[in-house]
Write a structure and sequence with these properties.
Length: 84
Amino acid sequence: MCYKNKICRDTPAIYFFWRNKMARACEICGKKPQVGNSVSHANNRTTRRWYPNLQRVRAIQGGTNRRIRVCTRCLRSGAVVKAV
């Protein structure tokens, strides 16, 4: 029996395609999650990830309207032309 978020022999192949379909990265600047440690008061360290603030935006790319994932810094700086 497969439990939640566990991979076993019964897992269909389409699951791997669906799971890795889109990366958590900005399509304009390529900003990705960063890794580091959470440090407690007792100086215990556990690894964690900091994700970029990505928004799904309808934007004009190559003369066509597309839905892309863009970080808020690219939105603020005007690197993206939003579709109206």
